[in-house]
Amino acid sequence: MKVLIADDDQISRMITKAAVEQSGHECIVAEDGDSAWQLYQEHSPEAVVTDLMMPGLNGLDLCRAIRASEEDSYTYIILVTSHGSRKDVLAGMEAGADDYVTKPLDPFSLHIRLLAAQRITSLHADLARYRSALTEQARTDPLTKLHNRLKLTEDLGLLHSLDDHDYCLAMVDVDNFKSYNDIYGHQAGDAALVAIATTLAREVRKADAVYRFGGEEFLLVLQDQSPATAASVMERVRSAVHDLRIAHSGDPDGVLTISAGVSAFTDGHRAGSEQLLREADLALYAAKASGRNRVTLADALAG
């Protein structure tokens, strides 16, 4: 565990440092509250042992600064007081300290508190990992491992906060997928969706994003693209899916194919996300009506 010591008294620093290191922990030392805060921001220690009275930030101010800066992490703070008065201890706890020790420092007392600190910070780290995993899971389609509609809503909201940032939406549908499921079964259908999802993600840039919109529909967000360049990207994607050669006796092409409709958020057309989705969906419908296995631009329908 990484432990930050903050104390303006040299002898106290030496004693505390020796006690921390004897307990088997890495030690960072600050001579006042201001340098302690700087070192805390640089090193993110799991525990802080701070004197109450110091030049610059005092121990209470340091506690408050640490607590205000924390997000998913948690720092265990041990306040060191000269006489352990109830008033000082209460002020420390109210400022965010977890425990306290009194001077002169008893190495055994500090060792016990560092054991508690290690246990508490480890639990907080586990909880942060679980929260992160659950957050990711809530935004991921379980079958294809693509982003889901919750993540799409969040990402579109972020894009629309950047009003001058051009992008295109491409609504994609697997052609004649219902008949594919009827002929080959839902297990084969799931495998086909996974293969197509993998291809979609592979064929676009890292800056772009692919989402499972629902059923056999996917949605691609293509960053910094014009309608023409987005159409070129989607033609490449369509061809890559065709080249998978997933046999489909119920399709005129004999293989699974996709159709796509593309809408654009560009100068002169700063539409809301719901309108862009509708435009992409109408363009997809037009692609389907025109024979499937093709890409249609919403701009072309408007013209």
UniProtKB/TrEMBL annotation:
Pfam families (alphabetical): GGDEF (PF00990), Response_reg (PF00072)
Residue ranges of every copy of the Response regulatory domain listed in the record: 2-118
One GO CC term, this protein: plasma membrane
Top EC class for this record: transferase
Modified residues (4-aspartylphosphate): D51
Positions of the GGDEF domain: 165-300
Keyword Nucleotidyltransferase: yes
Keywords, alphabetical: Nucleotidyltransferase, Phosphoprotein, Transferase
EC number: 2.7.7.65
MF annotations from Gene Ontology: diguanylate cyclase activity
InterPro entries given in the database record: CheY-like_superfamily, Diguanylate_Cyclase, GGDEF_dom, Nucleotide_cyclase, Rev_trsase/Diguanyl_cyclase, Sig_transdc_resp-reg_receiver
GO biological process: cell adhesion involved in single-species biofilm formation; negative regulation of bacterial-type flagellum-dependent cell motility; phosphorelay signal transduction system
Protein name per the record: Diguanylate cyclase
Organism: Paenarthrobacter sp. AMU7
